């Protein structure tokens, strides 16, 4: 939480009391922190009971005051509802009430029909362009897992040589490429491979990433071959397939041809094919399905009497 004396902090606002004349300004500050226009993804704090210099005023921090501050969330004037927590905090020289506001994923947030934002240490009503930024951010957040940004990643985390030599020629005509004078980042953005903030999407990281597993913990295939009919049997061979999705799919096909010669059992599904072709296609399907969620790896377990893919 920012220091009570941090006057220039974009994430802290101080009020000496919670009098009726101050209530609107506190609610506006909550709205502004929820909108998080700079996209800092950090919590904002409204401190009640401190001066502009950060000194406690001696305001009694009672349960009634804390309840009134918490009521800002549910009084129907701040919509969509902000995510806030209210607590008493100890400061040098006294106490204060802290209203901590998390950035909202459902922007723009309005108070009494107006969109409030932070401009440095001050709050202000959003302009039309600023409102558009908040609206586009919400639309991006509402997208499917694979189209959401890979937080913290940059264009430098992508294999740009692979993008130029393999992906781009398949996505854009040679004539357009010859006339194109855009930067690589602009080319990626034009193909919808970057989020509005310039971060690669998760799908982009899977397709073009130097090391997708570093950003998506489930982005690999675990292959294990057992000597007997159960998973307690001795392990004959095992491999971890990692890298770009296309490379993983190719390596998985190669493993399927070499190892799968028995009946196929797919977790939660009925095979539509037969024989080795079924194993290869279902391994491709499972790899893509896991890639869309990235919480668990795709697993292929080859037993003496059946193959299990999940």
Structure in words:
With 310 residues, the protein is of the alpha+beta class. It folds into 3 domains: 12-141, Methyltransferase, Cobalt-precorrin-4 Transmethylase, Domain 2; 146-214, no CATH class; 220-309. Helix content is 33%, strand content 22%. It has 9 helices and 13 strands. A 5-stranded mixed sheet has the order 10-9-12-13-11. Strands 1-2-5-4 form a 4-stranded mixed sheet, covered by helices on one side. Helix 8 runs antiparallel to helix 9 (275-291).
> Which fold name is given in CATH as the topology of the largest domain?
Methyltransferase, Cobalt-precorrin-4 Transmethylase, Domain 2
CATH class of the largest domain: Alpha Beta
Content of β-strand: 15-25%
Number of helices: 9
The end-to-end distance, rounded to whole angstroms, is 44 Å
Largest sheet: 5 strands, mixed
The gist of it:
Helix content is 33%, strand content 22%.
Q: What key phrases describe this protein's structure?
A:
310 residues, alpha+beta, Methyltransferase, Cobalt-precorrin-4 Transmethylase, Domain 2, 3 domains, 5-stranded mixed β-sheet, 9 helices, 13 strands, elongated
